[in-house]
């Protein structure tokens, strides 16, 4: 494999998980983009799932969907489709505006499956299969094959979990070997928590020292230490980290709390991290290009200084953690920011509407618009359908995403067409009006992992619709992740009552988006436009949604004044 040019930056985590290692990794890659270098990202997930597609979003955050579907062939004669990856890839794409390939997400499930199946095929005849060298060799092969595919100047590799986790050991060992095999071409960045102890009024570096010890005990000496803390690191904390962890003072970097995450690359740049890493890796362009830097600064300012805000209600099932809907949250922010606005999202557990119908009016009348979320299964679904009904009956600006679009159609059939028991067969398999049902090709599918309709597909937009107006073109590519779809037979009846099919698949037969002609802006899309929204380039649908919501807000304000 020819990867002679590619430099590798490995990013490990210490002390705690959830301290924003994904944002740090993306920001590091951005520093290289500021210098005109091409970048790609790998995320290593030490869990045994083959991909995160079957993981519950409450347990693991959102599942991100790539543009392409990868045919993963762990061994001769075996193959699995993979397009579902860790949510960190969303962060990477939003920061870098580069589409990531699904094979850039390396899981222990994939690595072990490959080695074990190859053993059965006889590829290691006579040998005892062991973590070292067989698992570590497979990890190295996977890393090098990502570099060989895209030939980036720099490949940033984020190792999931924290140093010291049993599951992460083989990866750290593989990284140790790669560093030995590629002298001068790798850097190791360790991201750790530096807590502030109120009682003594100090930032404490001991947890950092311990986690660096753990790294060193595996033969890994970090080149850079990034300290995650509420405020910037004090000089004293930096000096201690430098001395006790054997890292030059200039390579101890602050990662303070920020209101706008997209500012982190600028905060790193200002501390000299871009120059430090570039020189360490023997790359010649040590200084950032001022044009690229100021372009990003302009983007960040859009988020920092909104002139007004839009309030979005998100009735749904998973309302526990921000991460369950991170791409949607960010897509709303991108769209709003590019209109000079901020967003306030009100997460509403839709099962509450089922218990107390009066609550819905109270909650939804106060917001500027409603977004109905993607989802699976039946919890909270009646409340979500009621929210769609509310939008239809009160002409509220509304966007339904995937499941949200399907439930909009259910509400339309129930309350506009009068088919009282209309439903999706996902929730009620014996409904007399199955207005949403399995895609034809899904009827025979039994395995759950990687078998949905996934990845980007071509979508045809109908001229004169709100969706067409948003995109300004008749063919687009958007990403999908579903098994069910809106049934054409019922659509025909709905057309007479004002429903509009604004997008279909290539054949023209599968409905990809609907809208309601008598409403100001009620749109449901079967695809997930949030996966293609970028900090610097919002998704057209989200932008149109935010624009309509803001117009509505202004109209209401004016009406209230009269
Ligand atoms: N559960 C629905 C389906 O499989 C919707 C999925 C989604 O919202 N991503 O079609």
Care to describe what's here?
The protein is α/β, with parallel strands linked by helices. The protein has 2 domains: 7-301, Rossmann fold; 306-437 and 489-499 and 515-561, Rossmann fold. Helix content is 38%, strand content 24%. It is built from 19 helices and 23 strands. A 9-stranded mixed β-sheet has the order 13-12-14-15-23-22-21-18-19, sandwiched between helices. The chain has a 7-stranded parallel β-sheet with strand order 5-2-6-1-7-10-11, sandwiched between helices. Helix 12 packs across helix 19. The chain is globular and about 70 Å long. The model has no long low-confidence stretch (mean pLDDT 94). The structure holds glutamine. Glutamine binds at residues 374-376, 402-403, 426, 481-484.
Topology:
Blueprint: E1 7-13, H1 21-33, E2 39-45, H2 57-60, E3 64-72, E4 80-85, H3 88-96, E5 105-107, H4 108-121, H5 131-150, E6 154-159, H6 169-181, E7 186-193, E8 196-197, E9 202-203, H7 206-216, E10 224-229, H8 235-245, E11 252-256, H9 264-270, H10 273-280, H11 290-304, E12 308-316, H12 326-337, E13 341-349, H13 351-355, H14 358-365, E14 369-372, H15 381-394, E15 397-401, H16 403-415, E16 422-424, E17 433-438, E18 453-461, H17 466-471, E19 475-482, E20 484-486, H18 488-495, E21 499-504, E22 511-516, E23 522-525, H19 540-561
Helix pairs in contact: 1-3, 1-9, 4-5, 5-6, 12-19, 15-16
Residues 374-376, 402-403, 426, 481-484 line the site of glutamine.
